[in-house]
Amino acid sequence: PFQRFVETGRIALVADGPYKGKLVSIVDVIDQTRVLVDGPGSNVPRGQIRLNQLHLTKFRLKFPFTSSTRIVRKAWNDAKIDEQWENSVWAKKVAAKEKRAQLTDFDRFKLRRARSRRNHIRTIAFRNLKKAASRNGVLYGKKKMAKGGDKPKPKKAEKKEK
Q1: What Rg, from alpha-carbon coordinates, does the chain have?
Q2: What separation in angstroms does the CA of 27 have from each of 33, 74, 159?
Q3: Residue 70 and residue 121 in one domain
Q4: Per-residue confidence (pLDDT) for residue 1, from 0 to 100
Q5: Same domain for 17 and 81?
Q6: Contacts for 149 with CB less than 8 Å, ≥ 6 apart
Q7: Domain assignment of residue 80, yes or no
Q8: Is 11 helix (H, G, I), strand (E, B) or coil?
Q9: 11 burial class (0-12, 13-18, 19+ CB within 10 angstroms)?
Q10: Which domain holds residue 24?
Q11: Cβ partners under 8 Å of residue 156, min gap 6
């Protein structure tokens, strides 16, 4: 059931404190509530941090515990952690949240209007599809009707005068 463990090499996102929002790697476990972290790729110096200030990610580096910053940096760069993080859904959600927080009143107004227009277009398209399906008999599970629903009706041949 559990996939993310507090272990050497586990990459974590700092949730609180001066380095909030930065990625760090767990270098060693100090005790039940604290770990030694190092963030060579995110400019977080080596130091201790409480576990309740960290969010564990799915990424993990392979290096011996209590490795030096040089070894952690090499493993970080080899695994391309920064690129993997940028491509993750989690990072995209964090970026979207920050972008939404930067919106002005006018930006929020424009967004509301755009959503309204989009929903109006979507509703019209849905109603057209529903109407066509209803005419075909597809909507309510009926067999196709004798009179073709949304098929174009054949034009009657004009009578030629003799």
Answers
A1: 30
A2: 14, 14, 91
A3: no
A4: 81
A5: yes
A6: 132, 134, 135, 136, 137
A7: yes
A8: strand
A9: buried
A10: 10-98
A11: none
Q: CA–CA separation, 82 vs 93, rounded Å?
A: 16
Enter the pTM of the model.
Answer: 0.69
pLDDT digits (tens, 9 = 90+) for 32-83: 999 999 999 999 999 999 999 999 999 999 999 899 999 999 999 999 999 9
Would you state the structure tokens that stand for residue 23, as one six-digit string? 């990625």
Number of folded domains in the chain?
A: 2
* Token pair belonging to 161: 């005068």
- Written as six digits, the tokens of 48 are 């201790």
Q: Is residue 161 part of a domain?
A: no
Tokens linked to 51 = 């576990």
- Exposure letters 130-149 (e unless 16+ CB within 10 A, then b): eeeeebbeeeeeeeeeeeee
- Are residues 80 and 118 located together in one domain of the fold? no
Alpha-carbon distance 84 to 81, whole Å?
Answer: 5
